[in-house]
Amino acid sequence: MKTICLLFVGVLAWHGASLRGADNWVRYTAQPGGGKVKVEGTSTVHDWSVESKLIGGFVEFDPGFSFDNARPGKVNARVAVLIPVRQLKSDKTKMDTVMYDAMKEKDHRRIDYRLTEMTLKETPKSPEGPFLFDSTGELVVAGVTNKISMPVTMTRVDDDKLKFSGSTSVKMTSFGIQPPTLVGILSTGDDVKLTFEWLTVRKELPAK
Q1: 24 with 61: CB under 8 angstroms?
Q2: Of 17, 108, 148, 186, whose Cβ has the fewest other Cβ atoms within 10 Å?
């Protein structure tokens, strides 16, 4: 647990330094223990899934964006997310080892995501309702970068917390990952589904 916490703090510090010039942007950072990402797939024997409860990173909104007066259209935002590959786990040690090898974890220890475009499609119908976005970004897995699109839901938990959720499907081979097989026993499908929930907390940026 100590190692995870140190990694989490180091990641946030690195991202903070990388965007220090973003004057007056409103930043929400990942809440430790407040995220979950699930990867689901199929095989010729049974369906499978792995999950991580560690999602690092942040969301930043242009200071001109207001949740109370938001209107549909493009939103000026920055998002950077990372997930340590070894935090993805099933309940089967052998399966996890095969997965880490397939994902080339020794050379590419984390999954990264960077937002490139976000569009607000629908505002909440009630104070507790969700904002609905369309998003486009770059997903980096096993050292390979691909553009992905996905609908994202954002809910205001309170004045200082935002919860994001969404899902999309990708192919392993599009990231240079060969679907694992055991000759004569099973083979896994190329398509996988990614689902996430992510809690972020508002953070005041230090004055320059």
Answers
A1: no
A2: 17
CATH number of the domain to which 180 belongs: 2.40.128.110
Residue 51, domain extent: 2-20+27-203
In a domain, 208, yes or no: no
Q: pTM for the complete prediction?
A: 0.85
pLDDT in tens, 46-104: 899 999 999 999 999 999 999 999 999 999 999 999 999 999 999 899 999 999 999 99
Residue 176 domain flag = yes
